[in-house]
Amino acid sequence: MVQKKRLVVLSGAGISAESGIKTFRDSGGLWEGHEVMEVASPEGWRKNQALVQDFYNQRRKQAKDCQPNQAHHILAELESELEIVIITQNVDDLHERAGSTHVIHLHGELTKAQSSIDPELIYELDHWEIRKGDLCEKGSQLRPFIVWFGEPVPKMLEAIHEAQTADFFLVVGTSLQVYPAAGLMDYAPSQAEIFLIDPVTLYQNKGEKVVLIPEMATLGMEKFKKMVLEKI
What we know:
Layout: E1 6-11, H1 13-17, E2 30-31, E3 34-35, H2 36-39, H3 42-47, H4 49-64, H5 70-77, E4 83-88, H6 94-98, E5 103-105, E6 108-115, E7 122-124, E8 142-146, H7 156-163, E9 168-172, E10 193-197, E11 210-213, H8 217-229
Parallel strand pairs: 1-4, 1-9, 4-5, 9-10, 10-11
Antiparallel strand pairs: 2-3, 6-7, 6-8
Helix pairs in contact: 5-8
């Protein structure tokens, strides 16, 4: 049996935007009307747990009502031809709902909760909100399973390892401005072919061989699919 080529994907908010999930923050630096640090930092959590819980409860409800788009579905379909690992900055579960089987969430998952005193204690949510009084087995309040600003990214080493194994490395739906995730492309092997799908790319490194596909995620994935299938 011929071994499948490995495609490592770094996906960001742009791939979910076409499903109706709003991107991380608008041009004013706000996230759904909130200063980002109010709802995405340990300091914000300590200051106002009720605000943070409500914010993410609303994000879960929004994600529940959204469906995977064609870009998500194409990645799932390509598993029949390629060995695929998706490293996503997104906290929604649209990749999984489209059928992708190997997804690494760098920044956490809306569908899970974690202990506020022991980050190793992570729980699947069987409903779409975390309420005051929902406790972990150690008795602490559950918090969103989200990597906030100022917190380590536990899955980063795993993501780096996957990037180092790529035959093809695809960046879709991210402007490569949020680190450390933006640096993952640098770990792809020198012989790997790199593709970047973004309608208005800010990528400026002319020294690397990167195939730019200046489209939104859905149309860009259609073009990428044709390109990559011709190479395997």
